[in-house]
Amino acid sequence: MAHMPVDLLPAPAPRQTPVRAMTIAGSDSGGGAGIQADMRTMAMCGVHGCVAVTAVTVQNSLGVSGFSAIDPAVVADQMRSVVSDIGISAAKTGMLASSAIIESVAATASELGIGRDTPIPLVVDPVSASMHGDKLLADDAMDALRSVLIPKATVVTPNLDEVRLITGIDVTDDTSQRAAAEKLHAMGAQWAVVKGGHLRSSDQSVDLLYNGDVFHSFPYPRIDTGDDHGAGDTLAAAITCALAHGRSVPEAVEFAKGWVSRCLEWAYPLGAGHGPVNPLWRLSV
Ligand SMILES: Nc1ncnc2c1ncn2[C@@H]1O[C@H](COP(=O)(O)OP(=O)(O)O)[C@@H](O)[C@H]1O
Ligand SMILES: Cc1ncc(COP(=O)(O)OP(=O)(O)O)c(N)n1
């Protein structure tokens, strides 16, 4: 295992109300991705995680065999209920399933003051499919993602398949990764992270962050594992936690890269397919 320095977010003191964040995402019955991944990382980062469930997937280590989407009005009401009482310092989106849910989440985020240029940053992980290729977002929802949600994002975090669907750019190298980041920023995201996890030609996994001005590159050693289910959710959740703790976006992405790298180092086999990344490494520190 590589030995990277450990960057930790502060743990709450006994009886002290922790920093709060909300995930607006789908449930993974296998416990490795979606809401379950977000809550695992939030808990291990000392953050009280709140939830707006968007869909319930039927999923295990072999893939997603079906899902049921939640009524968009119920998604919006979950967001209102959390923000009006508990309060949050950051939010993230994951699986949103349909254009109706995307529109509801974007409108409710505006109503509640969540998103870029507000005090509550929004991390948009534009989940479109599982690692097995199972669809988690309707084909006709891509326009809503581009036109109403990405312009609200403080940070958008697509993988390379999602980059292709959203921007039409096929990222194969550093130049196309930069072009994709520029296009995502031009679509209205304050910051774009183009994740390099799927660029398997290198011994590095390089994520690129861009805000219309400066590129920040995050090269980390590629970890040799097939147990990488939930890596994207975990990265976005860790960014959200660091933002909730008051870190800047580049600091939050740096923290999250270190976090997900350790989670990949500690990933374990589960079921007959791909096991999950493992935030429980934090219990050993
Ligand atoms: N084998 C790996 N070794 C190190 N980092 C990885 C590896 N696979 C993915 N990552 C990192 O995990 C995060 C999620 O990446 P990616 O796999 O591209 O997203 P997704 O899970 O959404 O498909 C990124 O920060 C990426 O660089
Ligand atoms: C309910 C749910 N949400 C998101 C995903 C995809 O998660 P991701 O982190 O991109 O991980 P992989 O699918 O690549 O393992 C999901 N599968 N289920």
What does this structure look like?
This protein is α/β, with parallel strands linked by helices. It has one domain (19-280): UDP-N-acetylmuramoyl-L-alanine:D-glutamate ligase (3-Layer(aba) Sandwich), CATH 3.40.1190. 35% of the residues lie in helices and 20% in strands. It has helices at residues 34-44, 72-85, 99-112, 142-149, 160-167, 174-186, 231-244, 249-265; strands at residues 19-28, 47-60, 63-69, 90-93, 122-124, 155-156, 191-194, 204-210, 215-221. A nine-stranded mixed β-sheet has the order 3-2-1-4-5-6-7-8-9, with helices on both faces. Helix 1 crosses helix 7 and helix 2 packs parallel to helix 3. The chain starts with 18 loop residues before the first strand and ends in a 20-residue tail after the last helix. The model has no long low-confidence stretch (mean pLDDT 96).
